């Protein structure tokens, strides 16, 4: 199980130190939630902060765009050289065209879906994406409780992938802790995004070991 560290709820005044701590830990990636205040109520950060983070780490940077119009920031993220860009199926614009544009620049692509969105909507993209991000909370705010019924969707996505011989990674985001990760492991999830739980301890690796070692 791969673990991505979400920095959504950290103290941004300490961000440089936090990035260093993440880099020294056993975390597999840094998950960057870009929010515009329209697609979700909250506003997080944009390309300038992501560029600053990129300048201080070699970790895999996974950008999750919770914005109405992803096309407005995609070019900047491509120029920065992030490793993956994930677009919500609920976003505006030509999803296929945006995904292909990202891929042409040798950046991995993901498609994200909210807990209550018809899963059939992402099927046309499953043969081209690297990651399917199933939200396990409603997006826009950290510290929410894990929605267990989303595991029916990850299990379905896992079976769908096997049936059609597809290669996407199944990722979940929201409410991950040492209990909910057990459900993820049982239901086809390959990668989890962890925020609040990961940073509640001063020793990041202790939390990561709890997540990775739970049976």
Show the helix and strand layout.
Layout: E1 2-6, H1 15-24, E2 29-35, H2 47-54, E3 60-66, H3 71-80, E4 84-88, H4 95-104, E5 108-113, E6 131-135, H5 151-163, E7 169-173, H6 180-186, E8 191-194, H7 204-213
Parallel strand pairs: 1-2, 1-8, 2-3, 3-4, 4-5, 5-6, 6-7, 7-8
Helix pairs in contact: 2-3
Quick summary of this structure?
It is built from seven helices and eight strands; from the N terminus they run βαβαβαβαββαβαβα. By secondary structure, the chain is α/β, with parallel strands linked by helices.
Write structural notes for this entry.
This is Ribulose-phosphate 3-epimerase. The chain is α/β, with parallel strands linked by helices. The protein has one domain (2-210): TIM Barrel, CATH 3.20.20.70. 32% of the residues lie in helices and 20% in strands. The protein contains seven helices and eight strands, in the order E-H-E-H-E-H-E-H-E-E-H-E-H-E-H. An eight-stranded parallel barrel has the order 1-2-3-4-5-6-7-8. Helix 5 links the parallel strand 6 (131-135) and strand 7.
Question: Structural class per helix/strand content?
Answer: alpha/beta
Query: How many domains, as an integer?
Result: 1
Estimate the helix proportion, in percent. Answer: 25-40%
The CATH superfamily appears as Aldolase class I
SS summary, helix count? 7
- Would you state the CATH class? Alpha Beta
GO molecular function: metal ion binding; racemase and epimerase activity, acting on carbohydrates and derivatives
Cofactor: Fe(2+); Mn(2+); Zn(2+)
InterPro entries: Aldolase_TIM, Ribul_P_3_epim-like, RibuloseP-bd_barrel
Organism: Vagococcus fluvialis
């Amino acid at each position: 199980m791969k673990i991505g560290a979400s920095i959504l709820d950290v103290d941004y005044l300490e961000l440089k130190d936090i990035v260093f701590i993440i880099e020294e830990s056993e975390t597999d990636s840094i998950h960057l939630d870009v929010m515009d205040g329209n697609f979700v109520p909250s506003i997080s950060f944009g390309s300038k902060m992501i560029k600053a983070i990129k300048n201080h780490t070699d970790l895999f940077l996974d950008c999750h765009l919770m914005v109405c119009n992803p096309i407005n920031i995609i070019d900047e993220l491509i120029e920065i050289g992030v490793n993956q860009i994930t677009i919500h199926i609920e976003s505006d614009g030509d999803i296929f065209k945006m995904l292909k544009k990202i891929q042409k620049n040798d950046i991995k692509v993901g498609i994200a879906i909210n807990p209550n969105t018809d899963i059939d909507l992402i099927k046309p993209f499953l043969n081209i994406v690297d990651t399917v991000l199933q939200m396990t909370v409603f997006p826009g705010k950290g510290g929410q409780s894990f929605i267990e019924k989303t595991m029916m969707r990850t299990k379905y996505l896992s079976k769908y992938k096997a049936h059609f011989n597809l290669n996407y990674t199944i990722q979940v985001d929201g409410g991950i802790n040492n209990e909910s990760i057990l459900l993820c492991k049982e239901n086809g999830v390959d990668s989890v995004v962890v925020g609040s739980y990961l940073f509640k301890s001063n020793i990041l690796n202790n939390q990561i070991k709890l997540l990775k070692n739970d049976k």
